[in-house]
Structures are given as structure tokens and as C-alpha cells.
Amino acid sequence: MGGRREQTITLADGRRLGFAEAGDTEGAPLLGFHGTPDSRLLFTAAGYDEALRDVGVRFVGVDRPGYGLSDPKPGRGHADWPADVTALADALGLDRFAVLGYSRGGRYALSCASLIPDRLTGVGVLSAAGSPDMPGFYRSYPRRVRMELAFARRAPALWTRLTNSNVRRAAKRPGAVLTPFRLLLTCPADRAILASDARDLANSVMEAGRQGPESWRMDETNQRDPLDFDLDAVTLPVKVWHGTADQLVPIAQARHLAGRLASAELIELPNVGHLHTPERIAGIARELTQTSG
Predict the structure, then answer these.
(1) Domains identified in the chain and CATH numbers
(2) Residue 235: what are its φ and ψ, rounded to 5°?
(3) Main-chain dihedrals φ then ψ at residue 163, nearest 5 degrees
(4) What distance in Å separates the CA atoms of residue 146 and residue 133, rounded to the nearest whole number?
(5) Whether the predicted model's global pTM rises above the 0.85 cut
């Protein structure tokens, strides 16, 4: 990895914030927030770079604190994220920009919509974890996902030891890090992407554990915790994209979230799972940036 994929800025408190760029360097800016476990490398590999360049979008994938190149921030919450995002935008010379939160990153996009709306030109969430105030939120997850979340919460030391071991093993055989995903993401659409993009997906997941998995575990364990920002303060239009065949985050969460927000549009993607092709990401990026205010 190098060039546009190994970049950092230094924040006011001395922490580094890592990011990677893809697409058109002079294009409409879109900041992307990864899932868990994932990193800035999500949607910035060569295929995405080309597709995003074709639609004239400058995509900036950002590592959350403790992931990839970003230094940890003990005790951080969703509400801390907009300040980091604002600092990065200022460093890049971006006055206004769109945001896209994928999977676990959806809540971080919504925190920006709540707390820095004047900086945003568009807000999107894709295959995103919903609001914990949804009735039956935790039970809506598949049993295997509930077991993983419970393991991270109830046995943190053992979870950390096993996760570290898996990341080290994946350094020698990158595809091994995708084994849990292959067990869960079995719909035809996800199987096809796991087969065709295995190397890029594995690189992004391994990068999540570059500094150890503690921030990754934190994101796993606070799924059900109340949000630390006001979801009712999100009055900007939000586009909610979600696959009908998503086996990791059930579409029921997206339907509830779209109804929970003041101004949301739910776009259901038929027969689409949790993973996404460069062409789909480019289409979403174009829609978010070209229809923004």
C-alpha cells in the first residue's frame, strides 16, 4: 500500500488520523466511513478507484480512531467523530462535502448529520446498522451475529486473544481472515463478491487490526448502547440503501431507521447482500454528490 492509501493528518490533540483517497482528485468530495472490522481501504482499491473516477467523485475513506493508521482515542463515542471529520475536511481544503456510512459506519455518518449539518452536501448510509431504539433491535440479528457480539462483550480478554491470533494467521494467508464472512454471507450476490474481491476485502479487514483489535471490539460491544447524539436533530435528507438479501444487517433495521429519521429515503436493493461492487458504489457516490445541496 502506498501513495493515496497511506495518508495521515495530525489533529489538534496530537492524534494521527489516517485516510485513503480514490477516484477523481478534482471531483465532488465524498467522505466514506467504514464498517467493523474494516478500514480506510474499503472502497479505495483499484476497481473502486477507476469506477469513482468515471463518475467524477473524490472519495476519501477515513480510519476511525484505533483502526488502521488512526491513533486510538480512549472513551470515544459517535459524537466525537464529527470533530475529526471536520479537521480532515479543513486539512483537505473541503468547505462542504457528502458523507457515506457503510455498515457500522452508518451511525458515524448520522452523527455528522446531527452535529455538523452545515458542512454536509449529502448524507447516505449503506447496509447500515440501525438505531438501538428499534423494538427487537438485538434479536433482529442472525444468531451467529448475536453470538459474536455477546462473545466480545462477555469475554473480552478471550475475544481479543483469538482475534489477534486470527489476524496474525491472516498475515501469512490473507484469505483466512474472510472465513467468518464466508460462513455468514452465503447469498449468491455476496458469494460472488467474496470470490472476485477476496484480496481487497482481506486487506481492508486486516488493516482494521493493525494496532490490535480493541477499537474493533468496542464497536462490537456498544451496538445496543443508546446513541450519544440526537437522532431527532438529523433533519437533512438521508438516503438509506440496503440489500434485501443482507444476512449480516437485516433490512428490518434499515426500514426502521428510515422511518425513524425526519427526512429519509429508503432504497431497497433487490437480491443484494451486505457487500457491494465498484459499479454500485460509484452509482451511489454519484447520486449522493450530484443531487446534494
Answers:
(1) 3-290 (3.40.50.1820)
(2) -110, -10
(3) -65, -45
(4) 17
(5) yes
